[in-house]
């Protein structure tokens, strides 16, 4: 039987929920009319965008954006540079220096090469369903983190393209000059056929700029070329959104060869004068505003159960979910979460694992900036408890949040035996590491099987 240490040694991304960006993008059709693109000198945020002669079409401006800070974007940036092009990289600061993501030094090098770095929150939440203070921490502190790393941060992209008018105001107040959405410009999706072929300049809404659907693994070279070519008649702004380049078995990745072909084509189109290729900053313009820190996280709770919604009874924003709880995991496996009859209240959470090769899956308090995750105290030990039924071994996985907001794997408990009836698992943690500001935990599955959990508890060991 494997030990807990053997189970953990191959964990490829311990601090980040690995399926975050696989969620369906929320598309907000913000377009209110298809108007002609004006062909005069346009100036907004203090930057002149273009000057076109009378009766001529406006320029077709293409912007290549890259979300999340995946490590394969380093090579993607080098490919752009070799072609004389530059891109905008929207970085989730809490992911930096984690496996499969860029290091701070790599992001700094991208900026030094002329690429733009933008904000993408600290931990990649759905801002439309977070509380106001949490949204402010996510948006503002992401900009603070990146600025403290010596990066010039002016523009933002919404995780999942999900926003509300209130969130847009938060983004503006955090000092950003613009924020990118998705799904408001004609792309390869049949349902986008009635949308405009390009965004107007200046943008109709600076804090939800119109963009194509994200580029996915089923896009071809013809698809990528068509979304640019169809805009040439009238001109306008085309924002393309990439996540990964050359990552196998990733629905948000295209091959390295396809990407190289497309970059070469864009280079040639630019050289022929058919298009312009610019970063978001070059299109939007404006100055770099002072950083604005988000609200301080709630003070530590030193009494009672630290877990919010411990019995999973309060519903989350999405059907079948519990407020302040999120699925997590990593590796090659297929987890399915659903609500079932509870041990005490109405609901419990059931995880069914199939197709297991490696990694794990679990439910745990949301890895956020203070709205849901229990605030922690460095050096403090914690008593963890949860009721469970399981067809396989399980164990507690623990995570901690740093002062900058990144989440890291901490440790795991010994294995807990399978049980066909409700059994309370319990374990006392070691002292919380220095610099930690919050803690999260969950019971995991690291094999095929079914695990049902309910009635969680996290208390300080006195």
TrEMBL record:
What parts of the sequence cross the membrane?
31-52
Source species of the chain = Arthrobacter gengyunqii
Q: What is this protein called?
A: Polysaccharide deacetylase family protein
Q: Which PROSITE patterns does this one have?
A: NODB
UniProt-recorded Gene Ontology molecular function terms: hydrolase activity, acting on carbon-nitrogen (but not peptide) bonds
- Lineage, opening ranks: Bacteria, Bacillati, Actinomycetota, Actinomycetes, Micrococcales
Q: SUPFAM superfamilies in the record, alphabetically?
A: Glycoside hydrolase/deacetylase
The answer to whether keyword Thylakoid applies is no
Domain NodB homology spans what residues?
Answer: 60-278
> Do you know which CDD domains this protein is assigned to?
CE4_GLA_like_6s
Q: Which UniProt keywords apply?
A: Membrane, Signal, Transmembrane, Transmembrane helix
Sorted alphabetically, which InterPro entries does this protein's record hold? Glyco_hydro/deAcase_b/a-brl (IPR011330), NODB_dom (IPR002509), Polysacch_Deacetylase (IPR051398)
Q: Which GO terms describe its biological process?
A: carbohydrate metabolic process
